[in-house]
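Q: May I have one protein plus its fold?
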Amino acid sequence: MNFLSHYYFDRDTTNCYFTLGTVLPDLLKNADKNVILHPEKLIHTDQNVNSIIAGWNKHLEVDRYFHSDDFFLTHSHRLKQDLAPVIEGSPVKPFFLGHIAIELILDNLLITTGEINVNEFYDHLDSCQEDTIAEFLSFAGMNDPNKFLRFYRDFRQSRYLHTYINVEQITYALKRICMRVWRNPFTTQQEEDMTGILLNYRLSLMNSFMDVFNSVAANLSV
């Protein structure tokens, strides 16, 4: 799941550090794909650091149930099939595109149907003290927390997730993700064709997309 889909499950929490933890594994991958941390079993003397760890564990639990859910397996496969013909010649693997596309579509639907408030999500992130985040990262084994903190400031300042309300931005987000691996993943025509497919697919999920959130929620331990 993407940032806002993870936030959905704990949208009513008042603990900003727990909220940060629920999206931190993905934020770290965006900041530096080479950083791999495993804080799952760590216990710190600072309860705010422990809240980040608890949120991190919630992220892993949600992803585990989501990626094995019939909804994800079905729709990531169908999107792969729909997108494969229009990205012919691209170095991007259709199964990778289908996986990421369904996650971004779910974020878009959460925003456009009013299930989550993006400003409230950013308010949580803005409330977290950088010293606490740096302590968590150092405690978990990251050598240079400042590299992540620079990315984190830009992420909060840009308010980028607001753009997910537009389907065109889903295509752009897909492109940016692919550009971490491939320099020029798509042609302009391919991007236009992808946007059309994503728009139609999004509309087809309007009445059923909450099924996956309800399914995952039913399996969560907390």
Notes: The chain has one domain: 3-219. Residues 3-219 form one domain.
